[in-house]
Amino acid sequence: MKTTPKLRLRPTGLTIGFISERTGLAPSAIRYYEEEGIVHPHRTDTGQRRFERADIRRLSFVMISQSLGFSIAEIRTALDSLPANRTPTKADWQAISESFRQKLDDRISQMTKLREQLDGCIGCGCLSLSNCKLYNPDDRARTRGTGPRYLMGDSPSDLGQDA
Amino acid sequence: MKTTPKLRLRPTGLTIGFISERTGLAPSAIRYYEEEGIVHPHRTDTGQRRFERADIRRLSFVMISQSLGFSIAEIRTALDSLPANRTPTKADWQAISESFRQKLDDRISQMTKLREQLDGCIGCGCLSLSNCKLYNPDDRARTRGTGPRYLMGDSPSDLGQDA
DNA sequence: CTAATTCCTCAAGTTAACTTCACTACAAGA
DNA sequence: TCTTGTAGTGAAGTTAACTTGAGGAATTAG
């Protein structure tokens, strides 16, 4: 507490290098996140970025969320719910956490459902699309009106025997 | 059973257009899958692709697997375990299914674990990387020896108060 | 036999999430 | 002050999984 440990932490704010060390993110990634609106560092009069301590938390949240499978867009949306005028409190973060937890629950149960049908559906004949529960009903069902599609092969009455 | 319903199904094999209709995949996607070694149609003397009925099943498997989050590379690897000399049997498919089911189980339990720690870790101070269980320990832990990283912000004794 | 389809190939474009590069500009310290 | 070391910018490259487009050949319908 004499003069200062490293200027990079001092009056103006935290440098990108410091943030990079603390989060493990490459400076290029951090700049990218700024472009994506995930962090909003201010600039010195000479144009260098200066971050706040709270940005470390933001960026850590990004890393964690990504490892949970969320996209940058989703993460930005979540972060946008944090207050802009004051440093987010524990309660602010918990609200985000709760929302993500909900989404995760949904994904997990969705995956679980699909997994449970995997055996039966792949193992069996699984002839018609409309019967195949594994075929995601939302994604691409009835994309065209070309007639019935048969997932997993062989329609019942197409050509008698297999080719 | 007179002359033929559609030439595209007849002697030489199934055309890409037919496969496209049946699976819902764009021809461009099917060609891409060929490049990626997921299907191996033979060619007519004039160079057109001819598929087998079993390819519909292969491609359906690809679609299902993708919706479960598997990459083309993983899917190709799985499909490579199918016999090349004969049409895969139900048992062949079940073996693949079993292996994918296992991987899914792993992913689900991993996600579940992370989700359970989400609340606590984001909500709390979660100061040091080494204490933060949410921070994927395999991915990027100790990338540099630059000293301890602090996830989710503020290290205990860095600068007294918040910036 | 024509005309309309369908198919082929190859190159380039697309989105996400970044990295790498080339150059320039500031900042920190001996 | 002079020299590193960091920063900054903008453009282009990277991987995955495809799509789009250009230009040409086969097939199928009438």
From TrEMBL, chains A, B:
Residues 143-163 are annotated as: Disordered. The keyword Metal-binding applies. SUPFAM superfamilies: Putative DNA-binding domain (SSF46955). It holds the Pfam family MerR_1. Transmembrane segments: none annotated. Keywords: 2Fe-2S, DNA-binding, Iron, Iron-sulfur, Metal-binding. Residues 13-81 form the HTH merR-type domain. This is MerR family transcriptional regulator, redox-sensitive transcriptional activator SoxR.
